[in-house]
Design a protein that fits this description.
This protein is an alpha/beta fold and 428 residues long. It folds into 2 domains: 117 residues, no CATH class; 241 residues, no CATH class. 39% of the residues lie in helices and 17% in strands. The protein contains 14 helices and 12 strands. Strand 1 and strand 2 form a beta hairpin. It is globular and about 75 Å long. Keywords: Membrane, Transmembrane, Transmembrane helix. It comes from Terriglobus albidus. This is Adenylate cyclase.
């Protein structure tokens, strides 16, 4: 008999047979499509199961898991680094998806309840049931008087065989609608890791202050981000009331448009949503929950967060801005010349990404164009089911939970962006 509660698991030892069954079920779970393409989730689940089987379940706390599984220092701040909570939430969701499939419904169950890091184990349900023989309708009850005939059911066989197919058809149609309503779409899968992270959802927008970067064409994202930080410090320390009125609260229309597109996706989560400007928000605030970062060259947070990634922004406003491929740094094919007349600019480029940020300890999404049109197109792309389905195809269904970064291009007509197209993808 398997212990079935966290309390019993710490008091009642598991038999060798129980351990063998639980480990076998764990391997089936970890080799399923829900776990096999990830490293983080199987590692944590395996650790929690093994510790519980060895009688150490009571020691499974957030800090212990952060240190033992994710290599965090013993005194790390669990409030600002929720890697354990985020990962456990995703594991819990994937376990539910696994057992939701009918082929696994009768298997031994491994469950992870909300608020606990101690797995629970429940025996497999027995599919076989004792068969009770039905009474024969054409045999008289011997205990009844001979003169009393046995009453037979008055159901018409024709009626039965007419009603049953209709009922099956209705059930099939209803099941089809329910199945479609509960089947995750590519858009659901794209945003699932982001929504699994706890805390309020933040949109971080850049202000519309005009900035000029050094004329060196080799300007790096770090250098631009540093310039923005200096601008932030200058504005806060010595800026006049008029500076704050004209620069500190204004945002670009295209950035707001992108945020509105993405809010249509985020709004279905019924979670707190807040908007912050890049100049004025701080690291602690961004660590409280998942964040969508909008804008590229005018948002120092975006520039800092994509610095470890393959695709980055570079250039200067005296020459051109471009998206740099760190594996092919000399290639400047994705570029925009800011000195060109608006009417002559017919193409823009953008970076989109979904990553687990080590700096923030959160899952973040980035939608950042070289120009305003690129950011607007990126926001539209990340909220469009058909375009996200193409992104999933390029990433590979087996990598749907991995971090990724992609470069988009969009045709521009007098500053208005058309539908974005994928030109490059990098999966991490």
């Amino acid at each position: 008999m398997l212990p079935s509660t966290p309390e019993s698991q710490t008091l009642v030892p598991f038999s060798s047979e129980d351990k063998e069954k639980i480990r076998a079920q764990m391997e089936r779970l970890l080799h399923s499509t829900h776990f096999r393409n990830s490293k983080r989730y199987p590692t944590l689940l395996r650790y929690m199961v093994e510790e519980t089987l060895e009688g150490r379940g009571a020691h499974l706390k957030e800090r212990t898991l952060g240190v033992e599984v994710f290599g965090r220092p013993a005194d790390y701040d669990t409030a600002s680094d929720p890697v354990v909570r985020v990962t456990v939430a995703e594991i819990r969701k994937r376990i539910a998806q696994y057992y939701h499939e009918s082929s696994h419904a009768s298997e031994l169950r491994i469950e992870l309840n909300i608020g606990s890091y101690i797995p629970e184990f429940f025996p497999a349900r027995d599919r076989s049931a004792a068969e009770v023989p039905a009474p024969a309708n054409d045999v008289a009850d011997e205990s009844a008087p001979a003169s009393t005939p046995v009453k037979k059911p008055r159901f018409s066989r024709r009626l039965v065989w007419t009603v049953i197919p209709v009922l099956l058809l209705v059930i099939g149609i209803a099941s089809g609608f329910l199945w479609r309503s509960y089947t995750p779409t590519p858009l659901d899968r794209l945003w699932s890791p982001f929504f699994a992270a706890p805390g309020p959802i933040t949109f971080c927008l850049p202000i519309s202050a005009k900035k000029r970067w050094p004329g060196n064409a080799a300007t790096t994202p770090a250098a631009i981000a540093h310039a923005l930080d200096l601008e932030d410090t200058k504005l806060l320390s010595s800026g006049t009331f008029f500076d704050h009125e004209t620069l500190g609260e204004n945002v670009v229309y295209s950035d707001v448009l992108a945020m509105m597109r993405l809010e249509s996706v985020v709004g279905h989560q019924n979670r707190p949503v807040r908007v912050r400007l890049n100049l004025g928000t701080n690291l602690n605030e961004l660590r409280e929950g998942p964040t969508v970062f909008l804008g590229g060259l005018d948002n120092q947070w975006t520039l800092k967060l994509i610095e470890p990634l393959r695709y980055q922004f570079g250039g200067s406003d005296m020459d051109s801005f471009y998206i740099r491929d760190s594996k092919d740094p000399g290639n400047r094919q994705w570029s925009l010349h800011p000195q060109d007349k608006m009417a002559t600019v017919n193409r823009d480029y953008a970076i989109i990404a979904r990553i687990h940020s080590q700096a923030l300890g959160q899952v973040i999404v980035i939608a950042a164009g070289i120009g305003m049109s690129g950011t607007a197109a990126a926001g539209e792309f990340l909220s469009n089911s058909n375009q996200v389905a193409e992104l999933e195809r390029r990433i590979g269904a087996e990598n749907s939970d991995h971090d990724f970064e992609a470069v988009l291009t969009t045709d521009v007509d007098n500053g208005i962006a058309g539908p974005a197209r994928i030109v490059a993808v990098d999966v991490r």
